[in-house]
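Dear all,

This email documents one entry for the complex benchmark we are building for the journal club exercise. For each entry we list the sequence lines for every component of the assembly. Then comes the predicted three-dimensional structure of the complex as a token string, followed by one or two observations. Please use this as the template for your own entries, and keep the labels exactly as they appear.
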Amino acid sequence: MDQPQVGHGGGWRNALKVPFDWIDSGLDWFERSALIACVAGMATVTVSNVIARNLLGFSLQFANDTAQMLLVMVTFLGIGIGARHARHIRVSALHDLLPHLGQKILLVFVNLTTAWLLLALADFGWNYATSVQRTCRVLPDAMGLGFFSVPIGGMPLTVGIVVTLIVFALGGHLIRLATEGGERLLARFEGLRHHAVALLGLTVLALLAWGVFHVFIEMVNARSGQCRVTSSTGFPVYLNYMVVPLGFLFGGIQFFLAGVRNLISPENYLSWYQKDEYEEEGADPGMTGGFDPEEDLTEDRDRG
Amino acid sequence: MAELIEWLNLASMTTPDVALLVGIVMIVLLLMGYPMMVPLTAGALLLMAAKFSGLNEATLIQQMIGGVEQTVLVAVPMFILAADIMIKGNTANRLLDLVSKFVGHIRGGLPVTTAISCTLFGAVSGSTQATVVAMGRPLRPRLIEAGYTDRFAIALIINASDIALLIPPSIGMIIYGVVSGTSVGALFIAGIGPGLMILTLFAIYCYGISVWRDIPVLPRASWQERLVALKRASLATGFPVIIIGGIYTGTFSPTEAASMSVAYALFLEMVLYRQVRPSQLPEIALSTGMITAVVFILVAAGMAFSWMISFAQIPSLVLGDMLAEASQHPYQLLVLIAVAYFVGCMFVDPIVVILVLTPIFSPAIATAGLDPVHVGTLVVLQAAIGSATPPFGCDIFTAVAIFRRPYLEVIRGTPPFVLILLLSTALLIMFPQIALFLPNLMR
């Protein structure tokens, strides 16, 4: 796929490209990692629960609540990545009948207005999550808990959004560095040792995550004991609901970028990376399509 | 926004007029190619602005979250994950090989193999999209090479994959069960009869096409080859045992059956077949997460829209008299339900249609004394037909995305299959035992 012409234009375009790429790849890493962790978490708790109940004779009380929370996270955090890969279900029949220019105008309009709607929903979602948060006796803002409340709560909206994006992009890059470091470490071992080190690393990571989660919950509980929590995990529900505005924000940004890409490129795009195109007549019918999330994006990045 | 509402003078409009306006706006947005979540949320927001301007928009978000925050819905991503593991692995090929060895040599053997393989993979994965990917990729080129037209091949793959909506595990049935309060386990069992009936009708049609086009038959496999294929695929048949057997015996709830499918898929593909490496698991989980997100944002938006129209009492205002009349005549009500879901699914995703229409019909179904399991099966069958029917059936767009062929080319082969499915609907309405025979055995 073609990259937008940002690299060949004036200095300001090149100046924009570096921070754009940094935030874009950071957010991509964050969103991918969050989805992978949520799906893996859902599978782990539900399978463990069935095994524990049928083989060991007891149920994991937190399994259902945890799976529900993770499902909410997948649903909303996946909006952005779904838009990035142009996977959201849409009716393209009339769009397909239009000439190239008509399709471009429609794509620009549809993507920019979708972005506007999703950003409005992010605002509504933020209002809802903070209204649930306000039921806590002590606002966790006082402790600086949660990335969201700090930037958006006390700053102008646009600055808050930029800071939030930078924070999550930074998180994404930290995940990337940790993953790449882990891969380099694993590459030093072969055979059984490779698997043993991988298993050990995952176990340490899981224990670390478990520990951090418990410390976090203890901190929240200690400061805001009257928050509405899920019955079995003690996890304050407002923290889970914070993913709603975040997901709509990520989605809105992706649709905005899709609109912009159509404005600056001669070809039509369904998202910043995904071209609006069909298979060529006569191409091998067995080699097309599918759900490979790496498809197109990896190629596009490599060229970039 | 406030100026727009004032300019349109929405506040002074009657509720049926607002409902009509909302419907028109939603259809226009849909036709313009907006992601399907946009017409739903825009419709709900417009309705709220017109009739309940005092209501906080955050209520809509609350309904969205409530829509997806249900334990039984966790079954959906788990079935998708199991299917994704199988797609990366070798289960699909083994099933395909098994069917091909047994029926490939008969006239129409290849399309019949396609239909049976799609049904079998639907029975192990529960996902229409996953079935199209897993079976469509290897079978479409083989069908074309054998002499069938591309339009027939694509239409067969789409429609045969839709049987996955009926054969357990069925995502449509999980959603219907959640919304209507019907046993998901009973719905799963009830879907088997209609699914097999449709498969038989498709096989007859494929045979007819093969004779008409004089397509040469494939060489017959020896019994030794068949036994080898049977041995290779025998473990894959463990999925229906876990899902149907587990639910039938009460060992697992649908959600637990889904999670055990994941465990079994991992065991097969990673330990026994060694086709999936641990390093591929993140990629598989990402694919599952993305499909789940795309589906569940529709569930969330559909729930919010459904709540909004119920809150505005639109169903009783628009359909009240018709439903009251139909509830006195069960067959009339069944036909009305079939038409409503069929038409709805021609335009939007079946999940959205089930979410929106089920609360509207539920009181009439109870009044008419219809068996909710029978109705549920009929509803899911209509969802399957509608979603594979032009002009806007969503499975057509799935096929457009997966095969990357233009829309008009994809829909050309579908009419005969839609007619077969409509015949199946008539049979299911006239003979409820097609669906209820197996659940009645359980009682």
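Observations: Confidence is low (pLDDT under 50) at residues 1-8, 138-153, 280-304 of chain A. The two ends of chain A are 10 Å apart (CA to CA).
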